[in-house]
Amino acid sequence: MAIGIHNLKPADGSTHRRKRVGRGIGSGHGKTSTRGHKGNKARGQVNPNFEGGQTPLHRRLPQVRGFKPVNKKFYALVNLSDLESSFEAGAEVTPESLVELGVLRDIRDGVKILGDGEITRSLKVSAHKFSKSAQEKLVAAGGSVEVIAVEKRR
User: Which of 66, 83, 118, 143 could be joined to 138 by an S-S link, Cβ 3.0–4.6 Å?
Assistant: First the structure.
């Protein structure tokens, strides 16, 4: 048999005839039309969320409490130990240089330098935020700290 668009047909068993209910006793789907006897289901009034008397899902789940601030800023965090291992003495550290060296994957809403670890090298660090301990350690090591202004969201 030649294959062509004129003799295409669906695979065996993949299609089904539509169930025609309420068409007489001989159809097998007459009288109660496959709905059984009496009750809400037979009369077409069942709430789709009704779970048969079981405690409904919306009452089983815990309520969400508190709130989520809409304008919360998410800072990319960098520890002093990361700067110590990634930069030479006298280097200039910027958010872009942190991404280039692979210390950060993404700057997000800004970069914050945290004071975890020790620093012995003198670095010129530019970031959007600094923890107090990080600032003190950088200045004590002979480096400098420059705060970049954070852009406001609209």
Answer: 143
